[in-house]
């Protein structure tokens, strides 16, 4: 049985006090929740403030990116050691905005995944097709290539610590959510890819989140799909009510 995992990617939003207030509200209102992992991903500069706001709660936190080197002359970058120092448990890697706006390649994502695992951070590795890929029937091919590249050279032991987020690019921040059937189809395919690369037991144990315009009103039917193990949420994670409404959608699972 895979433990559901709902994560909020705050992207480059909020200011310090807004991040603290939102983290504190989610932490307070998630008291007593069991059987689910919850995490928020504030801008890195606010991680330390969020750490204070969620202390003693079930709400974990992480960063939206890292650099793969552990230290040195890499102006502007943040290392895994720095995140560990701030008590982070997770890091989002290969988000479509980093792939498509900042030009991050599968090879770079792979280096970051290996660095995160070496530091005992749990990477949430994002994959997903563009609208044109989907329209020409290339979804499976694109996902396969992203998995092969971003998750290259991972042992069975290492892959077991990875969370995958299926985030169709056309659904991120657009309000166009994948249908539960579309999400389930790709999640099932991802499990098949993992089975072929590792084995059934490993493939069945890995958590696969869906991301792309998830909100409280559409979460339950997405989360009800057998291979959808949670959600990576952007816009709707910026409001405590919406985020917790998505978590409530797990009750139908
Ligand atoms: C995301 O940023 O990963 C995301 C899925 O955004 P949104 O929920 O706003 O579509």
What is the topological layout?
Elements lengths: L4 E5 L6 H14 L7 E5 L5 H8 L4 E5 L16 H6 L4 E4 L2 H5 L5 H13 L3 E6 L3 H5 L3 H12 L5 H4 L3 E4 L13 H18 L2 H6 L2 E4 L4 H8 L6 E4 L6 H9 L5
Parallel strand pairs: 1-2, 1-8, 2-3, 3-4, 4-5, 5-6, 6-7, 7-8
Helix pairs in contact: 1-2, 1-12, 5-7, 7-9, 11-12
Bound molecules: phosphoenolpyruvate.
The site of phosphoenolpyruvate has 15 residues, from strand 8.
Task: Describe the overall structure.
With 253 residues, this protein is α/β, with parallel strands linked by helices. The chain has a single domain, classed as Aldolase class I (TIM Barrel, Alpha-Beta Barrel). The chain is 43% helix and 15% strand. The protein contains 12 helices and 8 strands. It has an 8-stranded parallel beta barrel with strand order 1-2-3-4-5-6-7-8, surrounded by 7 helices. Helix 11 links the parallel strand 7 and strand 8. Helix 1 (16-29) runs parallel beside helix 12 and helix 7 (139-150) packs across helix 9 (180-197). The model has no long low-confidence stretch (mean pLDDT 97). Bound molecules: phosphoenolpyruvate (PEP). The site of phosphoenolpyruvate has 15 residues, from strand 8.
